């Protein structure tokens, strides 16, 4: 799943990503793919994200770090990429230490990382597990550490809207542009920055930075 340029390649990519999302349960590592009809997909406008190198001390835990492995591309061997799907990890670029693991049951000890990242993964995790996943991230963060989340700003499904909400991104990394597509079932209730901030608050995390790009957001949360 590297750079996808033609409309057909885009559609195939969305099918693969949606197939994984639709068929993976949090405890199932690999359930295969399911076709999604393009007429059921609402595409948000392509969004550009500039992802510059950011400072982080020690290993960075990247949640759902398979697929395009964007954080791994940026921070290389400093990254510990966990993903529930072994194939997604295998397809991600080399560099990070890759471990098959469920984000809702992290196997790391408390206070292990200064930095945890979640790049367009929360939208692939069932909403009822979001609190548990953020709780696990808070647990493995060291005091003073930060959780960085990039994701879609999804409203509740508008009436009459197509079943699937998808977005094409143009990600500017230092010296490279990557163009992945991410999609999910349009949720019954909003899964936006406010949803994640509320859950983060219940886990004792404090918002330290925030950017709203319309269809996407970036949230930085600090463990006191
Ligand atoms: C859009 S994909 C890859 C996003 C990736 N961060 C990137 O840079 O492209 C989302 C990933 O989340 C993973 N995932 C879904 N549920 C998970 C869970 N409970 N624990 C860990 N990974 C999960 C999927 O297997 C998939 O590889």
Structure overview:
This protein has one domain: 3-Layer(aba) Sandwich (Rossmann fold), CATH 3.40.50. Helix 4 packs across helix 5 (193-202). Residues 1-9, 11-17 and 19-33 have low confidence and may be disordered. The chain is globular. 40% of the residues are buried. A hairpin with a 2-residue loop joins strand 7 (164-173) and strand 8. By secondary structure, the chain is an alpha/beta fold. The protein contains five helices and eleven strands. S-adenosylmethionine binds at residues 17, 20, 24, 26, 64-70, 82-85, 88, 102-104, 119-121, 124-125, 180, 182. The site of S-adenosylmethionine has 26 residues, from helix 1 and strand 3.
Summarize the helices and strands and which ones pair or pack:
Elements: H1 7-23, E1 41-50, E2 60-63, H2 70-75, E3 79-83, H3 86-91, E4 97-100, E5 113-119, H4 130-140, E6 141-152, E7 164-173, E8 176-178, E9 181-185, H5 193-202, E10 206-212, E11 216-222
The structure holds S-adenosylmethionine.
């Amino acid at each position: 799943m590297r750079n996808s340029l033609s409309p057909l390649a885009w559609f195939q990519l969305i099918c693969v990503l949606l197939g994984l999302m639709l068929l993976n349960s949090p405890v199932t590592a690999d359930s295969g793919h399911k076709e999604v009809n393009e007429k059921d997909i609402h595409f948000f406008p392509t969004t550009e994200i500039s992802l510059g190198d950011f400072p982080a001390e020690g290993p960075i835990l990247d949640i759902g770090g398979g697929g395009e492995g964007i954080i791994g591309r940026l921070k290389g061997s400093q990254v510990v990429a966990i993903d529930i799907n072994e194939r997604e990890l295998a397809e991600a670029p080399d560099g990070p230490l890759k471990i098959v693991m469920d984000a809702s049951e992290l196997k790391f000890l408390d206070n292990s990382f200064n930095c945890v990242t979640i790049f367009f993964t929360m939208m692939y995790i069932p909403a009822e597990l979001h609190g548990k996943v953020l709780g696990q991230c808070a647990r493995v963060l060291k005091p003073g550490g930060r959780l960085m989340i990039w994701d879609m700003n999804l409203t509740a499904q508008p009436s009459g809207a197509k079943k699937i909400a998808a977005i094409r991104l143009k990600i500017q990394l230092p010296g490279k542009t990557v163009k992945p597509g991410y999609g999910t079932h349009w949720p019954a209730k909003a899964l936006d920055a406010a949803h994640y901030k509320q859950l983060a608050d219940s886990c004792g995390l404090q918002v330290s930075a925030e950017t709203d790009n319309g269809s996407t957001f970036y949230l930085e949360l600090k463990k006191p």
